[in-house]
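Page 37, continued from 36.
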């Protein structure tokens, strides 16, 4: 079996990608320092797939430990998820984000280089586009200074990867992943107060949180709240498997050389208030929410043009907003 190293593999997107890799005949090797994930996720993965993946409680910044894993297993490719990801926190603690997100990638690349592993799929973000002037956003849209240090770490990491001529890189720029596996055995499980909209909605609905704050209702959007392109995490996970397959194909790099970029989204934007309304329709619960001030670092509106991923990765989203939110709600209820 082909060994794929997954950094941050017990996180939200990482765990769903591990499931998709196992279902497609790969052998995922997980490293995760459990700073924003839980060991119980391994049990969920095993229950879904019937296979318990190899796991190491290792920080990607620990070069000696990561190198030991490369020495033990012949790693064909790496999917790099491990990073801090809260926009608001990054504004408050920028050095923490640069040290971990940028430093972690550099450490990983050095280990890969010394072990002759050249293939990497990088977990990037639509935040590299900042506040886009033209929508939908395509891969040729201008890269501007992102609105947050988190977004800037993704931009800097992409620049580092683009400069490394001895690596084959696919950078996947996610829009807004939500939802959970249909089994409700794995899903988004933030430690502490959630930073993302949907888990805050579901935790409020089930009584863990008193109320939800909508950050701003005076943006230049139809209902005044921010607009995002939400995609199901299982659709997103499948894109990583297709990226790994593409790295092994002769077709890789024909259009752009050894650094390829793909936007991953549905191509449709929904506002925060639309997501809340959809949840209320699905659950039958009136959500307790209030309008608060705008949040530092938030982009007003952004959604993807996913045509390039449709063509070259042969990837397209399958699940609509209602299915995304229903799966997230099922997951939350299963946790209680």
């Amino acid at each position: 079996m082909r060994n794929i190293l997954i950094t941050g593999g017990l996180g939200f997107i990482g765990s769903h990608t591990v499931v998709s890799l196992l279902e497609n005949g790969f052998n995922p090797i997980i490293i995760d320092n459990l700073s924003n994930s839980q060991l119980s996720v391994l049990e969920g993965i095993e229950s879904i797939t019937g296979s318990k993946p190899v796991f190491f409680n290792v920080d990607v910044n620990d070069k000696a430990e990561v190198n030991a894993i490369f020495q033990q297993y012949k790693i064909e490719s790496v999917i790099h998820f491990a990073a801090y990801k809260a926009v608001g926190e990054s504004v408050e603690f920028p050095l923490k984000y640069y040290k971990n997100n940028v430093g972690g990638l550099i450490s990983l690349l050095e280990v890969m280089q010394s072990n002759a592993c050249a293939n990497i799929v990088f977990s990037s973000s639509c935040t590299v586009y900042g506040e886009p002037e033209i929508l939908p956003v395509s891969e040729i849209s201008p890269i501007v200074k992102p609105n947050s240090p988190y977004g800037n770490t993704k931009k800097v990491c992409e620049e580092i990867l683009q400069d490394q001529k001895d690596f084959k890189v696919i950078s996947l720029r996610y829009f807004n992943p939500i939802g959970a596996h249909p089994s409700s055995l794995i899903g988004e499980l933030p430690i502490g107060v959630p930073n993302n909209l949907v888990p805050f909605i579901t935790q409020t609905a089930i009584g863990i949180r008193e109320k939800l704050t909508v950050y701003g209702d005076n943006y230049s959007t139809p209902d005044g709240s921010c607009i995002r392109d939400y995609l199901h995490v299982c659709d997103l996970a499948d894109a990583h498997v297709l990226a790994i397959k593409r790295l092994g194909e002769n077709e890789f790099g024909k259009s752009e050389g050894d650094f390829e970029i793909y936007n991953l989204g549905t191509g449709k934007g929904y506002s925060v208030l639309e997501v809340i309304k959809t949840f209320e329709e699905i659950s039958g619960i009136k959500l307790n929410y209030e309008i608060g001030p705008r949040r530092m670092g938030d982009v007003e509106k952004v959604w993807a043009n996913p045509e390039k991923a449709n063509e070259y990765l042969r990837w397209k989203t399958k699940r609509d907003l209602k299915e995304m939110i229903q799966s997230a709600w099922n997951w939350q209820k299963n946790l209680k």
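The chain has a mean pLDDT of 94. Flag for discussion at group meeting. The two ends are 37 Å apart (CA to CA).
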